[in-house]
Amino acid sequence: MLFKRRDKEPFFRRMGQMIWPRAGWSRASQYVGHRLGRMGASPYSIAAGVATGVAVSFTPFLGLHILAAAIFCLVVRAHVLSSTIGTLIGNPWTFPLMFALTGNVGAAILGEPLGDLVPSWDWNALWDNPGSYLLTLLGTLKPFIVGGLPVAAVAWLITYSLVKRGLVRYRLRRLRRINAKKGSRLRNGLAQVKEKVQTVKEKAQSVKDAHMEKRAIKAQSTTSGDGTAPAE
Hints:
This protein is an all-alpha fold. The chain contains ten helices and no strands.
């Protein structure tokens, strides 16, 4: 972590920060953007990693998104850490919308209403036979899996294109700022060198003038001494 707290926050407060950042989503997104832009990997690797994390988040396998994204990143040679950042798109605020989208797309592909494919929750059946009821619920994931695949593919393409373009622009702007600072420092350094050279020249000229003045005084005193010498 770039900025680690000295005192560790309580667990529930950290969980609350994951749901709603203290500085707001705008600052959080800016921070994530800077983290992505300053990673040492290539734009393709970072963009593919973020896109993989976003795409995996549209699958119904909650709790396995980070692991699945890391596995896919190894396959496509993407940046694993950036895929973890990409999975942040799946959170308690977005999962209902994401699953509603993938469920309806899957139901449309299967040609059946989503209500028929996903039965209502039955507490009595859960208490009577928990194992059998949970196994039955696994079958309800079918429309979300079927609908999640095309949605994930589209999300991957869109995210990859946007992130790669943003990374290239970010790095170009950062490179220009660095070059501008280097150019400013170079100009300042040249100005200081010129100033020192000018100072040295002035000192040399003053020394030369002083030396010439001493020679003139000496020559004048010698001539004056020769003119007053007594004749033999």
